[in-house]
Amino acid sequence: MPQIARVGLVAKHRVDAAAGVLTDLAAWLEARKVEVVFESETAQLARSPRKATVSKEELPRECDLIVLLGGDGTLIGMARRIARAAVDVPIAGVNFGSLGFLTEITLDELYPSLEDVLAGTAPIEERMMLHARTIRHGVVFADELVLNDVVITKAALSRIIELSVCVDDDTVMRVRADGLIIATPTGSTAYNLAAGGPIVHPNVDAVLLTPIAPHMLTNRPLVLNGTSEIAVEPDMNGNEEVFVTFDGQSGHALQSGDRVAVNRAARPLRLVRSAGRSYFDVLRQKLKWGER
Fold first, then answer.
1. What domains are there in the chain, each with its CATH number?
2. How high is the pLDDT of residue 252?
């Protein structure tokens, strides 16, 4: 791992408990000759107006490492910005949320983990991301990068929707359901898990297709090769309202004739892991995995 000269600090908006941690963390880094760059709103939270500040969108290009204090939603948002910036800056997530599958580093582990990062010995895991495009009238209407999932779903009061699914130009299935989740292994413990899909280890090169409350018992989750090119077209013959969402953070309504195309993104997310905790430790801690 390249030497860390600049560290970006970002915290979940309005998490006052992070203010003191940010101040101490900035001082700790500067004592080790590491320049600190604050995300603009985070600088206000830490009351550090004299520090270098940049926007969330600019932060990935301005540092060698991002330390994030927040929950998984905050980390997912930053992961998408890193992907859009087309850089490989790693991110260390410190859990200030509730569940914390991705922000797994605890406050007690913060400084030992950063010591390992600065020494070049920290475990850094690559997490697949997906590139999703909505094609409308033959042109790209929306272009997104996601860490967890692309979800195509009906509106709250709509009937069951029908979706045609192709993989690598081969017709795979016609889904009659409340929707369909296209998930990465990282996203397997998110909406996919709630919808009855499998948990997939993040090192597995795979993409998951999980119908949401399918009408047909034969519509079961599928695990595909990570290189798969997936295309989903909604069959909208009536007044159905169909939406596509990206990591639950953005989305739009679909129109008749739209096609959602999904494939592996060009770059994975580089995630700093806790040296003393395995993926299965996280499952046991967060999901009470294997407990009776």
1. 6-127+268-287 (3.40.50.10330), 130-264 (2.60.200.30)
2. 97
The H helix count followed by the E strand count for the chain is: 6, 19
Cβ-contact 103, 110 below 8 angstroms:
no
Question: Which long-range contacts (C-beta less than 8 Å, at least 24 apart) are formed by 114-117?
Answer: 114/28, 114/29, 114/67, 116/275, 117/1, 117/4, 117/65, 117/90, 117/92, 117/272
CA angle 111, 70, 266 (to 5 degrees): 95
**Which residues does 152 contact at the CB level (< 8 Å), separation at least 6?**
161, 163, 179, 180, 182, 232, 234, 242, 243, 244, 254, 260
Extract the tokens encoding 259: 């096609």
* pLDDT tens by residue, 214-262: 998 888 999 999 999 999 999 987 778 899 999 999 999 999 999 999 9
Token pair listed for 59: 């932060």
Given 72, 149, 178, 258, the catalytic residue: 72
Please provide the DSSP assignment of 31-45 as one string: HTT-EEEEEHHHHHH
User: The tokens of 55 are what?
Assistant: 């926007």
- The number of C-alpha atoms within 13 Å of 66 and in the hemisphere containing its C-beta is 34
Q: Which residues of 248-284 are buried (b: 16+ CB within 10 A; e: fewer)?
A: eeebeebeeebbbbbbbbebbbbbbbbeebebeebbe
Averaged pLDDT, groups of 10, the chain, 292 residues long: 89 81 93 95 78 91 96 94 97 83 89 94 96 97 98 85 95 94 97 96 97 89 97 87 96 95 98 87 79 64
What are the helix (H) ranges across the chain?
18-31, 40-46, 72-85, 110-119, 191-194, 279-287
**Cβ atoms within 10 Å of 188's Cβ, excluding its own:** 26
Quick check: is 72 catalytic? yes
CB 217 within 8 A of CB 234: no
